[in-house]
Write a structure and sequence with these properties.
single chain; Purple Acid Phosphatase, chain A, domain 2; 6-stranded mixed beta sheet; about 25% helix
């Protein structure tokens, strides 16, 4: 099983990066499934229904998200109707949408789980407990399970990876938009990276216009972030997974610059 996972898609530069660069990556890595975090696709906050259709039309199979998924009201019915659009599974049970999916590929079924951290983020249910429950359900149907943990703190991300070590193929961090260089495979065969990075404008501060970010730091004024419209990049990871055991054989960090 060969999987591509893209870090947070941010604004139009991130969408352009997918449109221009993803098909080449799929061909290069011969990927069976493409998963991407899309919660910042709409001008840095949320995702629209139209963008869901555009991203899936350009090669993304499953879209994960995080705390900004609720930004655009038109996405809520789609969370109920579109099984490949996920919201974090550790929101309360009455919240629209779902936090996991079983996706069928030519190489076999893949389980995808979406969770949100609790450190420095809005209160949610325990990602460890809910994550374990979602994984146990999927384990009856597939050995290959990939977790997007949308969280702020490295300690929380690493802890979840060790908690699920051996029971999932990968725990991949999102949310900070800064790609980390700690990709590795844990002793139980679970791949891990603290943050897969961002698919969006390279010359930016976590996707936003640098000058605005600097001014906010200097003045402490609540200036609204705006997505920088600069050359794009694709951040993410490639995974090669034993489809029988679910153990990851290879994790490779991806940082592809696109002059668009």
């Amino acid at each position: 099983m060969r999987a591509l996972f893209l870090g947070d898609i941010c604004g139009q530069p991130g969408c352009r990066a997918v449109f221009v660069g993803l098909k080449g990556l799929i061909k290069e890595y011969k990927s069976d499934i493409v998963i991407a975090n899309g919660e910042n696709a709409a001008d840095g906050f949320g995702i629209t229904g139209e963008q869901v259709h555009q991203l899936t039309s350009n090669g993304i199979d499953v879209i994960t998200s995080g705390n900004h998924i609720w930004q655009h009201r038109d996405i809520i019915p789609m969370l109920e109707d579109n099984p490949i659009l996920l919201r974090p599974g550790n929101y309360p049970p009455r919240v629209p949408g779902k936090g996991s999916v079983l996706f069928q590929t030519k190489a076999g079924p893949v389980g995808v789980v979406n969770l949100q951290g609790r450190r420095s983020l809005p209160p949610t249910d325990c990602p460890f407990r809910v994550g374990r429950e979602l994984v146990e359900i999927l384990k009856h149907k597939t050995s290959v399970i990939i977790v997007d943990f949308h969280a702020e703190q490295p300690e929380e991300k690493e802890s979840l990876a060790y908690y699920l070590n051996g029971s999932v193929s990968a725990v991949l961090g999102t949310h900070t938009h800064v790609q980390t260089a700690d990709e590795r495979i844990l002793p139980g065969g679970t791949a891990y990276i603290t943050d897969a990075g961002m698919t969006g404008p390279e010359d930016s501060v976590i996707g936003s216009i640098p000058e605005l970010s600097v001014e906010r730091q200097l003045t402490q004024m609540p200036l609204k972030s705006e997505v920088a419209d600069h050359s794009s990049m694709i951040n993410g990871v490639f995974l090669e997974i034993d489809s029988e055991t679910g153990k990851t054989l290879t994790i490779e960090r991806i940082y592809k610059r696109l002059h668009i």
